[in-house]
Amino acid sequence: MSTLIIYQYPKCSTCRNAVKWLQAAGYELDLRHIVEAPPTEQELTQLVEHSGLDLKKFFNTSGEVYKELGLKHKLATLSELEQIALLSSHGKLIKRPIVTDGTRVTVGFKEDMFSEVWG
What is the pLDDT of residues 48-83, one digit of tens each? Predict the structure, then answer.
């Protein structure tokens, strides 16, 4: 089975659950600390493209940094490049975990979605 890259925050219970699920499914994992080493702008651009999701889905809208920066109202005024730059500069702004095999990408953890994509 291929190795999956997981951008995650070790203290996050959702991330820990995702890691457990993927390990139980037999995947080798390359765990990356999303706060200490957030994905670069180039990596984020590729992740967004491969995910097929709207860029907004990559924002941790319930996080403190999102609220502190007032992004609920500001996000719509930023270009896609500005949004990606913002995400890559603040790991806590990124919804987690992000899982990728280089082709497929999932954001967040829901068991049914993981079963469909990684099962």
Answer: 999 999 999 999 999 999 999 999 999 999 999 999
Intra-chain end-to-end CA distance of the chain, in Å: 11
Token pair belonging to 53: 């999701």
| Sequence-ordered alpha helix ranges (H) in the chain | 13-24, 41-51, 64-68, 71-74, 80-89, 111-118
Name the nearest CA neighbour of 99 among 115, 87, 86.
115
Using N-to-C axis directions, what is the helix angle for 13-24 and 111-118, rounded to 10°?
40
CATH of the domain at 24: 3.40.30.10
Domains: count for the chain: 1
Structural domain boundaries enclosing 81: 3-118
